[in-house]
Design brief:
Helix content: under 10%
Oligomer: single chain
Strand order of the largest sheet: 23-33-24-29-30-31
Largest sheet: 6 strands, antiparallel
Shape: globular
Number of strands: 33
Distance between the termini: 18 Å
Structural class: mainly beta
Radius of gyration: 22 Å
Bound molecules: 2,5-dideoxy-2,5-imino-D-mannitol
Number of helices: 2
Strand content: over 45%
Length: 483
């Protein structure tokens, strides 16, 4: 697909009220995982799992886009296409990009069976040549009984050695991430599992029957392993986890762990280390609506906002929206020092907007519940609430009234937060996407599909007790597409 065709597809879908306007998503049809994130000669390259022919997961290609600023993206030609008769004939599944002494190299998954493939570029990532010896690894080590699950290579270099992590499973035990080593990226030695889960665990410590999409971050001596978890039901995508620890003598010693994202829609993240050493993460925001609605819409899947990941003392992670996003800010409303109690809407000026950023610091009193409603219709029938509840120490997204359409998800979700004097919410609403950063360390994402043309109201409410608003900034955000 060339740029003019991509533009035509984007323009055709531009007026869909559910289609996000400042998130990356493909020109049309299906997208899932981010792949091969890399900064090359200053530009950010984003590849993604892509079915260019229909809004369903089919014969997967690698789509490709590029950005100078992490915010605005330009479509580039499809990078990888399944090649008949080759190891990736049925699909080019997830993988990574590396700089092999100046040669841009993709390592990705062929399927049926799952195996590792390699491609290189001689024109700064624009076109890709498949390695003639593909697959470079034909499948998981026999002894593991991985049931053929062996995908999503993540590769990095330490000294003279290349290391590779593979998503896999051990039958009857749980998910696992396998460790390999190589000197030339072509011949690989299997070492051992880097980490093994327990699918039968009562406490959800390291759950899941299959782990996919590994990534490994280095913060000095601290390492952070990231992967996404499949549940026991067929194709059940649960959520990504992180495990912090150390990596010595090719062994990973876990020290702390946590959920990378809450809400059930953010999956298969990858992290890019930019030239300044900053780690920036994107994940796939899944859809929450029926296949017939997706077919009608003609598109499925959105990339999350770029999220800056940094270490916290004790092994936790700080998660904040990338500061580059501030370039999207347009109309601004500001409130400060307000004491709120009672039942009115405290935002004056009747803000009607489905493309917003909100940055708010609250001082909640004991036993209070307050929050925002988004995409609120004039008759109150449609609305989505983001609620802070001090008694349960939760921030929830209440979706039961988010849409009058019964073919879309409307369950609630929440994240448990630590008690504190201040609750900081950083919220991004982009049509059907709602992303919330709580206190700089929790990230919650959801999807909403209101139906009424006037479902665009924003309100601030208190439904129990009282709260002080230290500061509240609201911006309308620009679209990133010139359509
Ligand atoms: N999706 C890809 C796989 C990956 C899974 C296929 C995660 O490579 O394991 O599109 O969403």
């Amino acid at each position: 697909m060339n740029n003019a065709q991509a533009f035509t597809q984007r323009k055709k879908l531009a007026n869909d009220p559910h289609r996000p306007q400042y998130h990356f998503l493909p020109p049309a049809n299906w997208m899932n995982d981010p792949n091969g994130l890399i900064q090359w000669k200053g530009q950010y390259h984003l590849f993604y799992q892509y079915n260019p022919y229909a809004p369903v997961h089919g014969r997967i290609h690698w789509g490709h886009a590029v950005s100078f600023d992490l915010v605005h993206w330009t479509d580039l030609p499809i990078a990888l296409t399944p090649t008949p008769g080759q190891a990736d004939a049925d699909g080019c599944w997830s993988g990574c990009a590396i700089d092999n002494h100046g040669i841009p190299t993709l390592m990705y998954s062929g399927i049926h069976p799952q195996r590792v493939c390699l491609a290189t570029s001689a024109d700064d990532l624009l076109t890709w040549q498949y390695y003639s010896g593909n697959p470079i690894i034909a499948g998981p080590p026999d002894a593991l009984l991985a049931g053929g699950h062996f995908r999503d290579p993540f590769v990095w270099k330490e000294g003279n050695d290349w290391y590779m992590l593979m998503g896999s499973r051990i039958e009857g035990v749980g998910g696992t991430i396998l460790l390999y080593r190589s000197l030339d990226l072509i011949t690989w030695d299997y070492l051992h599992p880097l980490l093994v889960g327990d699918a039968n665990t009562v406490q959800p410590v390291l759950p899941g029957v299959m782990w996919e999409c590994p990534d490994f971050l280095t913060f000095g001596d601290q390492r952070v392993l990231i992967f996404s978890i499949q549940g026991p039901r067929d194709n059940e995508l649960l959520h990504p986890l992180y495990v912090s620890g150390t990596f010595r003598d090719e062994q990973f010693l876990p020290q702390a762990q946590g959920m990378l994202a809450h809400g059930g829609y953010f999956y298969a993240p990858q992290v890019l280390r930019n030239d300044q050493g900053r780690y920036i993460m994107w994940g796939w925001l899944m859809e929450g609506r029926s296949n017939s609605l997706l077919a009608e819409a003609g598109w499925a899947g959105v990339m999350s906002l770029p999220i800056v990941v940094a270490p916290l003392p004790g092994g936790g992670l700080s998660l904040e929206p990338s500061p580059e996003l501030t370039s999207l800010r347009e109309n601004h409303w500001r409130y400060e020092g307000m004491e709120l109690s009672g039942t009115e809407n405290f935002l004056h000026g009747d803000i009607q907007d489905d493309r917003l950023e909100i940055l708010a610091e609250f001082e909640p009193a004991q036993n209070c519940e307050f929050g925002f409603t988004f995409r609120h219709s004039q008759d109150d029938k449609e609305q989505t609430r983001l609620v802070y509840q001090s008694a349960s120490q939760r921030v929830s997204i209440e979706r039961e009234q988010s849409s009058l359409n019964t073919e879309v998800d409307r369950e609630n979700s929440f994240v448990a937060i630590e008690a504190g004097e201040v609750c900081k919410l950083h919220i991004f609403l982009d049509h059907s996407v709602l992303e919330v950063f709580v206190n700089g360390s929790c990230y919650l994402a959801s999807r909403i599909y209101p139906t009424c043309p006037d479902s665009s109201g924003l309100e601030l409410f208190v439904r129990e007790g009282r709260v002080r608003v230290r500061s509240l900034d609201i911006w309308h955000l620009a679209s990133i597409w010139n359509l």
